Amino acid sequence: MSTKTSAVLILGLTLLLAGALMAQQKPEDIPDAPSATRPIPPPAPPSPRPGADQDTTPNAPSPDNSGAGVSSSSNDIPRSDPDSTEQKTAPPPMPPVRTVPTGSVPHDAETGQDVGYTIRVNPTLVLVPVTVKDSEGRLVGGLLPKDFSVLENGQRQKLTFFTSDPFALSAAVIFDTGMADVGLKKVQDTLSALQGAFSQFDEVGIYTYSSTVSRVSDFTSVGKELTAVLNQVKGYSGANNGPPVTSGPLGPQGPYINGIPIDSPVNPVSTPPKVAYVLNDAILLAARDLSKRPRDHRKIIFIISDGREQGSTASYKDTLKVLLTQNITVYAVGVEGAAIPIYDRLQRIHMPKTGALVGYSDILPKYVNATGGGTVYGELTPAEIERAYAQALGDARYQYTLGYSPKSTIGGYRDINVQVQRPDLKVYAKHGYYPLPTPLSTPR
Q: What pLDDT is recorded for position 260?
């Protein structure tokens, strides 16, 4: 056999052996391809070793899956190690961290301002419902924002909100059950007309008061539930007519013998029993309930009473502050004594040198005027009372609503003066308000 033929046979056997070895190699043992992120380094020159000139095939990898038996010969294709520091970009250095005491907020070293996360809020929007009437007491429509001017503490405000659209009402209706029974019966005959003065979009809560306050019904829509509640009110009784009994054998202290009550060592005192008419407490309870009603409703308190007030825990000043803070307007229908002009003036006559009022003071006009409700509708007959319902609730629904944002909400009472730039018109609006505190920021 010639030398040339022998070389060809050796080369063919070598290729067959290499193919068999590669067929036995597992996929996971195949060396990884070089990373595309860096160039493949040139192979290092082979190290001298005996018989290297006859070794024409690469070393076969170890059958161990871990790859521990892979040859480290410089002829092998280099592996790309994903954990290598050469393959990763060094992260940016962490900024310095400042710790502060618990419950405190870090401040900027230059400005001194808080650097915590905050959410800024807009100033409080002050809404002012306004009723405008002509000289004959009729509502005036068609006015524009330019026709109004609003002064807060003497400074003119820029209007940011204006509408003449009607609002749905959240109305707290307060009945005086401490008045004479004949007067209460007159009111009870008009309750159907009262319900008819509300719309299907309104909600109504019912309250009564005499010596105590009672929440008869929570706020409900105008419908069968309200009808059932008003039917319940029709069954209430008022106070007995006539002057109280203060003497005689059937006086409030019981039987007498020679002018001295039986089983009593104290001399009798002929004074009428003290009667309470807690109108302030009733208004305060209704105002607190109204503060929880929807904000897109106009909130009113509608009082049907003779206006007497005595014995309330709450004062007029504190009750009025809640009304003005919650933007609640008071409307009232005065019946019995409050509907008689001469009697109403007699209630305000002061005793000489004492300052005391004769009888009981009618405070309905004070609440109505201060909150922008206009005037008290003093009526005597059932027909007049029914007309007063429609007129008062119409005034409440069809008002202009002005809005502005004061520059600051810090401080106490703010005086409001609303003016209309047209002659011979009467303007009814609240006299002022107490701003609710508004935080400048809210932590995340």
A: 54
Q: Which two tokens stand for residue 266?
A: 């104290």
The residue-averaged pLDDT of 154-161 equals 93
pLDDT at 73 > cutoff 50: no
d(CA 215, CA 282): 9
Burial class (CB in 10 A: 0-12, 13-18, 19+), 266: exposed
Q: From CA 168, how far away is CA 300, in angstroms rounded?
A: 11
Residue 216's pLDDT band (cuts 50, 70, 90): very high
The type of residue at 309 is E
Mean of pLDDT over the chain: 74
Task: Give per-residue pLDDT as tens, 250-280.
Answer: 444 555 555 555 555 555 455 555 678 899 9
pLDDT in tens, 362-382: 789 999 999 998 888 887 788
Residue 52 CA to residue 38 CA, distance in Å, equals 31
- Give the C-alpha separation, 210 to 366, whole Å: 20
Domains in the chain: ranges and CATH: 122-164+399-444 (2.60.40), 166-239+273-398 (3.40.50.410)
Residue 56 has pLDDT above 60, yes or no: no
**Calpha distance 394→109 (Å, rounded):** 59
Residues whose CB falls within 8 Å of the CB of residue 17, separated by 6 or more in sequence, listed in order: 57
Of 160-164, 201-205, 284-288, 377-381, where does mean pLDDT reach its minimum? 377-381
User: Is residue 18 classed exposed, middle or buried when 0-12, 13-18 and 19+ CB atoms within 10 A define those classes?
Assistant: middle
**Rounded to an integer, what is the distance from CA 205 to the centroid of its chain?**
20
Q: What is the pTM of this model?
A: 0.63
Question: What residue has token string 């710790």?
Answer: 99
